[in-house]
Write a structure and sequence with these properties.
elongated; mainly beta; 1 helix
Length: 79
Amino acid sequence: MAYTAFGERRKGDWRVSDPLPPIIPALTNRGFTGHEHIDEMGLIHMNGRVYDPQIGRFLSADPYIQAPYNTRVTIDTVM
């Protein structure tokens, strides 16, 4: 299997695959980084947040703020 730059599965001829062949989910639901792909919705479950490879973003904000009292830390928020 091949993957796009944002983690979406693509066909062997490098085209982005819309419907996966029925045999692919039977083999594995894991992607390049070992995260679970939710093929029916086109999302990647990363064991804490859900990622959308179409838009290249997480669907929720990071629940853990590394240093809440450090004013130099930037917080990535979902817009």
